[in-house]
Specification:
alpha+beta, Lambda_DNA-bd_dom_sf, Cro/C1-type_HTH, 89 residues, 2 strands, globular, 434 Repressor (Amino-terminal Domain), HTH cro/C1-type domain-containing protein, DNA binding, two-stranded antiparallel ribbon
């Protein structure tokens, strides 16, 4: 994974979070409901990355997106990314 915070907490970028939500087809409102976080918290994360959230909220957001089939990819020469698990597996 990419952008490790101190103590090993994963912190995806704003672009990764926005892409992950878009790829799952969820609105900000639906993702907020799925995570139990506020709409403004999701907006803040998509503007500034998970590092602007509390560690607990960042972890919750990442866990829910991963549960929906998102894999956060490590940065390479082209930068970090996301992958969505196919319906077949």
């Amino acid at each position: 994974m990419v952008n490790m915070r101190p103590h090993g907490i994963f912190s995806p970028t704003a672009q990764q979070l926005t892409a992950a939500r878009a790829a799952t087809g969820l609105s900000i409102q639906k993702l907020a409901e799925a995570t139990g976080l506020g709409v403004n918290t999701i907006r803040r994360a998509e503007a500034g990355g998970a590092q602007v959230l509390t560690p607990v909220n960042a972890q919750r957001l990442v866990e829910v997106l991963q549960g929906l089939g998102v894999t956060f990819l490590e940065a390479d020469a082209n930068g970090p990314g996301v992958r969505i698990r196919s319906a077949n597996g």
